[in-house]
Amino acid sequence: MANYHPTPEMLTDFSAGNLQLGHALCVSAHVEHCDECKTNLQRLNSIATNLFDGLEPASLPDTLKNAVFSKLDDEHIEEPVREKTVSSHIPRALQQFISESYETLSWKKVSSMIQQAHLSTDVSGSKVSLMRIQAGGKVPMHTHSGEEYTLLLEGSFSDESGLYNVGDFLVRDERHKHRPVVTKDRECICLTVTDAPVTLTGFFTRWFNPLLRRGHFSH
Fold this sequence. Notes:
- The chain has 5 helices and 11 strands.
- By secondary structure, the protein is α+β, with helices and mostly antiparallel strands.
- It has a domain at about 105-215: Jelly Rolls (Sandwich), CATH 2.60.120.10.
- The strands form 3 sheets. The chain has a 6-stranded antiparallel β-sheet, with helices on one face. It has a 3-stranded antiparallel β-sheet with strand order 7-6-9, with no helix packed on it. The protein has a two-stranded antiparallel ribbon with strand order 4-11.
């Protein structure tokens, strides 16, 4: 059961289709794990449906309707694409990026205990990735030069603010300075969306910040 959720404002924007791709992916995957947010989203969608039902339909000129129907008549009907067999524990929102399982992704080594797989870069430049951290692994102390959205998909980790489990939804920005530590019982996989690279704050690790900035904008 998730203990950390999107704000009501973010859930409302998601219902209205106003979130950018990366943020919408995080919210959608969270809703699959969270009955509370699923119920709230259904209520929001119901309110929106009732509002639209009360609107008078706009009239369209016959020339526009004829052009649309003509276009439909010209469309070629393609054979249905055979669906891929994707592991059932992968959120539906992410299955467009993952062919079968997390193992099939192109993981890149970030450190001895951390791997990253790039999924997408949306139109705003936000980077959508998966982070995979071995059991007991530690992420260096860091802060953020932009917003970072994190959804925990497998395993659990903790930082200075608490313990997080599968389905938990977190938002971090320049106000937060933390060092996530994965629990020792199993590895951790997180969906992350970053508007800008993290900024390492440790005495030694901060020298890697220029490399992090270059890597963030290389996709």
